[in-house]
Automatic annotation (TrEMBL):
A biological process from GO: methylation
Lineage top rank: taxon: Eukaryota
Keyword tags: Methyltransferase, S-adenosyl-L-methionine, Transferase
InterPro entries: SAM-dependent_MTases_sf (IPR029063), SAM_O-MeTrfase (IPR002935)
Protein name (Swiss-Prot/TrEMBL): S-adenosyl-L-methionine-dependent methyltransferase
Listed Pfam families: Methyltransf_24
Region annotation Disordered: where it falls in the sequence: 94-115
Recorded GO MF terms: methyltransferase activity
Length: 233
């Protein structure tokens, strides 16, 4: 039976386990204080907050169809969605006849060092190709710290940006990356319905025709915005 993504059984099993852990953790969360407050950040500092499996599979297949090879993930957490991104990028590189190293890259960002370390552990278990020992880590450039600092340079020409971060950072991150976006680049923003009011600034920015974007809402739980960058010539 076919699966939504192309990956070795070991990697599929790891992803299934990680998604299960994330859902279990999410279901047991206590009532949360307002987002981005110190109390909220403390509670969430060791939580998955992983992109849902159906969304992650969609993003993987989108990247495969785009032949995306230079991807940025704003908000890595425990690195679950990063595995999908790295699988797609490494497979695109292989399809194009590239060697892998230096031919494709996922720039992953995480502010919490503890989460970054856990992400590295998860990546070390995931195999990207059919060959033994071919891990996904080879295409991942993990940048730990404030992403508004870590994304200031060395981005190359960006094919895809995943915005899976606290909503106040969404628009500043997009503006920071925008000069590096190629024409036709895709931006995906998560939970744009469940956090509708918090995304007002981002929505107004991308809906302004002067800024070169087109936006559509995809029918996933919580909302998923697909934004295309097509700057005027």
């Amino acid at each position: 039976m076919s699966t939504p993504i192309h990956a070795p059984p070991q990697t599929l099993a790891i992803l299934k386990a990680l998604h299960s852990q994330s859902l279990l953790q999410e279901s047991s969360l206590p009532p949360l204080p307002p987002r981005c407050t110190p109390a909220f950040n403390e509670i969430m500092s060791d939580k998955f907050i992983a992109l849902e499996q159906d969304k992650a599979c969609f993003v993987y297949n989108l990247l495969r169809s785009m032949n995306a090879k230079n991807v940025i993930e704003a908000g890595t957490s425990f690195g679950v969605s990063t595995i999908y991104l790295a699988l797609a990028v490494s497979q695109n590189v292989e399809r194009s006849g590239g060697s892998g190293n230096g031919s494709g890259r996922v720039v992953a960002t995480e502010n919490e060092p503890g989460k970054a370390e856990k992400a590295r552990e998860n990546w070390s278990l995931a195999i990207g190709g059919e060959g033994e020992g071919e891990g996904v880590e080879g295409v991942i450039d993990l940048r730990v710290g404030d992403l508004l600092e870590t994304l200031k340079g060395d981005l190359g020409v960006v094919d895809f940006l995943l915005l899976d971060i606290w909503t106040p950072l969404a628009l500043p991150t997009l503006k920071l990356v925008q000069p590096s976006l190629r024409s036709g680049a895709v931006i995906i923003a998560d939970n744009t319905v469940s956090s509708y009011e918090d995304y007002t600034a981002l929505r107004e920015y991308v809906e302004n025709p002067e800024n070169g974007f087109r936006r559509m809402l995809l029918p996933f739980k919580g909302g998923l915005d697909m934004i295309i960058y097509e700057p005027r010539a």
